[in-house]
Amino acid sequence: MAVSPNSEHDKLPIRMLHDRVLVRQESGEGERRSGGGILIPATAAVGKRLAWAEVVAVGQNVRTVEVGDRVLFDPEDRAEVEVRGVAYVLMRERDLHAVAAERLQGTDDSTGLYL
Protein backbone atom coordinates (compact mmCIF):
# COMPACT_ATOMS: atom_id res chain seq x y z
CA MET A 1 0.00 0.00 0.00
CA ALA A 2 1.34 3.38 -0.92
CA VAL A 3 0.34 6.00 1.60
CA SER A 4 0.81 9.76 1.67
CA PRO A 5 3.51 10.93 4.08
CA ASN A 6 2.62 13.00 7.13
CA SER A 7 -1.07 12.23 7.05
CA GLU A 8 -3.57 10.51 9.26
CA HIS A 9 -3.50 7.56 6.82
CA ASP A 10 0.16 6.69 7.54
CA LYS A 11 -0.63 3.49 9.39
CA LEU A 12 -3.74 2.07 7.77
CA PRO A 13 -3.76 -1.69 8.41
CA ILE A 14 -4.61 -2.38 4.75
CA ARG A 15 -2.61 -3.38 1.69
CA MET A 16 -4.53 -2.74 -1.51
CA LEU A 17 -4.49 -5.48 -4.13
CA HIS A 18 -4.36 -5.42 -7.93
CA ASP A 19 -6.13 -2.40 -9.49
CA ARG A 20 -7.97 -1.28 -6.36
CA VAL A 21 -8.02 2.32 -5.17
CA LEU A 22 -9.02 3.44 -1.66
CA VAL A 23 -10.32 7.01 -1.43
CA ARG A 24 -11.76 9.29 1.21
CA GLN A 25 -14.70 11.27 -0.10
CA GLU A 26 -14.58 15.01 0.37
CA SER A 27 -17.25 16.40 2.63
CA GLY A 28 -19.73 18.15 0.43
CA GLU A 29 -22.94 16.30 0.97
CA GLY A 30 -24.63 19.12 2.84
CA GLU A 31 -26.04 22.37 1.61
CA ARG A 32 -24.23 24.04 -1.26
CA ARG A 33 -24.45 27.31 -3.17
CA SER A 34 -25.00 27.83 -6.87
CA GLY A 35 -22.75 30.07 -8.94
CA GLY A 36 -25.26 32.88 -8.41
CA GLY A 37 -25.23 32.48 -4.62
CA ILE A 38 -28.53 30.59 -4.24
CA LEU A 39 -28.51 28.14 -1.32
CA ILE A 40 -29.37 24.59 -2.48
CA PRO A 41 -30.47 22.27 0.36
CA ALA A 42 -28.98 18.79 0.68
CA THR A 43 -32.42 17.27 0.07
CA ALA A 44 -32.85 18.93 -3.35
CA ALA A 45 -33.23 16.45 -6.20
CA VAL A 46 -30.44 16.81 -8.74
CA GLY A 47 -29.38 14.77 -11.73
CA LYS A 48 -26.62 12.21 -11.52
CA ARG A 49 -23.79 14.04 -9.81
CA LEU A 50 -20.20 12.83 -9.64
CA ALA A 51 -18.11 13.33 -6.49
CA TRP A 52 -14.49 14.21 -5.69
CA ALA A 53 -12.32 12.18 -3.34
CA GLU A 54 -8.69 11.99 -2.21
CA VAL A 55 -6.72 8.83 -2.98
CA VAL A 56 -5.27 7.37 0.23
CA ALA A 57 -4.00 3.99 -1.03
CA VAL A 58 -3.47 2.19 -4.34
CA GLY A 59 -2.84 -1.41 -5.40
CA GLN A 60 0.33 -2.52 -7.18
CA ASN A 61 -1.35 -2.61 -10.63
CA VAL A 62 -2.74 0.95 -10.53
CA ARG A 63 -1.03 2.94 -13.28
CA THR A 64 -2.57 6.42 -13.57
CA VAL A 65 -3.40 7.42 -10.01
CA GLU A 66 -1.09 8.17 -7.09
CA VAL A 67 -1.71 8.67 -3.39
CA GLY A 68 -2.75 12.27 -2.77
CA ASP A 69 -4.48 12.76 -6.14
CA ARG A 70 -8.05 14.04 -6.29
CA VAL A 71 -10.28 11.77 -8.37
CA LEU A 72 -13.78 12.07 -9.78
CA PHE A 73 -16.10 9.07 -9.40
CA ASP A 74 -19.75 8.05 -9.42
CA PRO A 75 -20.90 7.87 -5.77
CA GLU A 76 -23.67 5.42 -6.67
CA ASP A 77 -21.15 2.79 -7.82
CA ARG A 78 -19.15 2.40 -4.65
CA ALA A 79 -18.29 0.01 -1.87
CA GLU A 80 -17.77 1.66 1.50
CA VAL A 81 -15.49 0.42 4.25
CA GLU A 82 -14.77 1.81 7.69
CA VAL A 83 -11.22 1.64 9.04
CA ARG A 84 -10.45 2.98 12.50
CA GLY A 85 -13.68 4.97 12.53
CA VAL A 86 -13.09 6.70 9.17
CA ALA A 87 -15.26 5.92 6.14
CA TYR A 88 -13.47 5.14 2.87
CA VAL A 89 -14.65 4.15 -0.60
CA LEU A 90 -13.08 1.16 -2.37
CA MET A 91 -13.16 0.95 -6.16
CA ARG A 92 -11.31 -0.24 -9.23
CA GLU A 93 -9.08 2.17 -11.13
CA ARG A 94 -11.29 1.82 -14.21
CA ASP A 95 -14.26 3.23 -12.25
CA LEU A 96 -12.56 6.62 -11.90
CA HIS A 97 -13.66 9.31 -14.35
CA ALA A 98 -10.91 11.92 -13.93
CA VAL A 99 -7.78 12.77 -11.97
CA ALA A 100 -6.84 16.24 -10.73
CA ALA A 101 -3.27 16.51 -9.49
CA GLU A 102 -0.57 19.17 -9.52
CA ARG A 103 1.85 16.72 -11.15
CA LEU A 104 -0.39 16.75 -14.26
CA GLN A 105 -0.02 20.51 -14.73
CA GLY A 106 2.09 20.82 -17.86
CA THR A 107 1.15 24.15 -19.38
CA ASP A 108 -0.35 27.45 -18.29
CA ASP A 109 -3.76 26.58 -19.74
CA SER A 110 -3.87 23.12 -18.18
CA THR A 111 -6.84 22.34 -15.95
CA GLY A 112 -5.05 19.59 -14.05
CA LEU A 113 -7.70 17.08 -15.09
CA TYR A 114 -6.72 13.88 -16.82
CA LEU A 115 -9.80 12.63 -18.67
How would you sum up this structure in a few lines?
The protein is mainly β.
Give an overview of the whole structure.
With 115 residues, this protein is mainly β. It has a single domain, classed as GroES chaperonin (10 Kd Chaperonin, Protein Cpn10, Chain O, Roll), CATH 2.30.33. Helix content is 0%, strand content 36%. The strands form two sheets. Strands 6-7-1-4-5-8-9 form a seven-stranded antiparallel beta sheet, with no helix packed on it. A hairpin with a 5-residue loop joins strand 2 and strand 3. It is globular and about 45 Å long. 16% of the residues are buried.
What attributes does this structure have?
single chain, 115 residues, seven-stranded antiparallel sheet, two-stranded antiparallel ribbon, globular, disordered N terminus
General shape: globular
Question: Approximately how much helix is present in the residues?
Answer: under 10%
The CATH superfamily title: GroES chaperonin
Q: Over the alpha carbons, how many angstroms does the gyration radius reach?
A: 15 Å
The domain tally reads 1
Please state the structural category: mainly beta
Instruction: Determine the CATH topology.
Output: 10 Kd Chaperonin, Protein Cpn10, Chain O
**Count of strand segments:** 9
Q: Kindly state the mean pLDDT as a whole number?
A: 76
Largest sheet: 7 strands, antiparallel
The main sheet orders its strands as 6-7-1-4-5-8-9
Beta fraction: 35-45%
CATH architectural group: Roll
Spatial separation of the terminal alpha carbons: 25 Å
- What string gives the helices and strands in order? EEEEEEEEE
Low-pLDDT runs of 5+ residues are: 1-7
Q: What's the level 1 CATH class?
A: Mainly Beta
Q: Count helical runs.
A: 0
